[in-house]
């Protein structure tokens, strides 16, 4: 009787196994950037939706009050008298009712389905730009100030996981700085963000009729990645949120909720390396985002568009102003 030999089962050799692993690694390497790109595209779309919501809320406010809300307020502008810096406003914007003190972010809360939060907002302390126990009234708005409002947060910003009250969208106060003061560059005396040729600025009362350059040609809001955040500040009690308005120290008013389209998008100054805590100048003069290549802007007409960080600087600054009389593209020709 003949015996049949069973066929031997052949497995992978070590070389074949390594080849298969290498092929899988290459495929994963090719697929991962595509997945990351798709996720960023989704986050950017979500961010764009936030900016459309904010633009719509600002327009609903305008329809109700016949003007856009004030960009921001400050209670000490009278202290500029006698400093040589002048005073281009005749009233103290910190006095009076809720509308007299609250920043644009607080004023549009009812139009973002946040009416209950709006009612809790104490306008007497809306000027505090940071949370600090040593400042009088600094914690009066703490519970509201620390509340997360998704419409104010860009999903691409990694700080979302460490700061609930993050603000990624600033009002555009203009395109060239210090026209209000007419004293040129005042960096040496610390005056920043006081442009008033945009739509949202210190004490602003602008309406659609003031936007002579055209609502589709003028910035209303822009993305930011520069405000100090909880993770950037070592003490974690000196940082910005959506409820911040004017800076709290009693020297000169400086904005924490609006910025001027003065310096190129995503700019880092030579004295500052990426990753460092942004300076006050960054917060008030530079727009930028964690989206590759530029950032989003809401126009006065409510549309949202992406602007490249390589955009012509003069055209960029012109788009930040509401009534300079220059046509689209004319400033760069």
TrEMBL record:
InterPro entries, per database record: DUF1559 (IPR011453), N_methyl_site (IPR012902), Pilin-like (IPR045584), Pre_pil_HX9DG_C (IPR027558)
SUPFAM superfamilies: Pili subunits (SSF54523)
The organism's place on the tree of life at top rank: Bacteria
Domain DUF1559: 36-312
UniProt cross-references to NCBIfam families, sorted A to Z: IV_pilin_GFxxxE, pre_pil_HX9DG
Name used for this protein in its record: Type II secretion system protein G
Organism: Novipirellula galeiformis
């Amino acid at each position: 009787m003949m015996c049949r030999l069973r066929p031997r089962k052949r497995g992978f050799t070590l070389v074949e196994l390594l080849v298969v692993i290498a092929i899988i690694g290459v495929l994963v390497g090719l697929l991962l950037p595509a997945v990351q790109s798709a996720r960023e595209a989704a986050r950017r779309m979500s961010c764009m939706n936030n900016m459309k919501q904010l633009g719509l809320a600002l327009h609903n406010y305008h329809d109700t009050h016949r003007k856009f809300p004030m960009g921001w307020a400050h209670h000490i502008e009278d202290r500029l008298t006698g400093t040589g810096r002048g005073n281009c406003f005749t009233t103290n914007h910190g006095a009076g009712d809720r509308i007299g003190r609250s920043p644009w972010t607080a004023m549009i809360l009812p139009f973002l389905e946040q009416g209950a939060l709006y009612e809790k907002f104490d306008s007497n302390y809306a000027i505090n730009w940071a949370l600090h126990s040593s400042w009088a009234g600094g914690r009066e708005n703490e519970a509201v100030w620390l509340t997360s409002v998704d419409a104010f947060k860009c999903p691409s910003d990694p700080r979302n996981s460490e700061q609930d009250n993050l603000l990624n969208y600033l009002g555009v106060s203009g395109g060239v700085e210090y026209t209000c003061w007419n004293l040129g560059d005042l960096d040496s005396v610390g005056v920043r963000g006081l442009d008033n040729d945009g739509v949202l600025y210190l004490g602003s009362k602008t309406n659609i009729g003031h936007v002579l350059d055209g609502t589709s040609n003028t910035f209303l809001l822009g993305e930011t990645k520069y405000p100090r955040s909880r993770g950037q500040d070592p003490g974690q009690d000196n940082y910005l949120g959506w409820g911040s308005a004017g800076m709290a120290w009693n020297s000169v008013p400086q904005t924490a909720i609006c910025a001027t389209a003065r310096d190129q998008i995503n700019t880092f100054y030579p004295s500052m390396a990426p990753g460092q805590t942004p300076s006050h100048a960054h917060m008030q003069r530079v727009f930028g985002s964690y989206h590759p290549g530029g950032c989003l802007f809401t126009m006065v007409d409510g549309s949202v568009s992406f602007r490249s960080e390589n955009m012509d600087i003069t055209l960029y600054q012109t788009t930040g102003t509401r009534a300079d009389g220059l046509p689209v593209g004319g400033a760069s020709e």
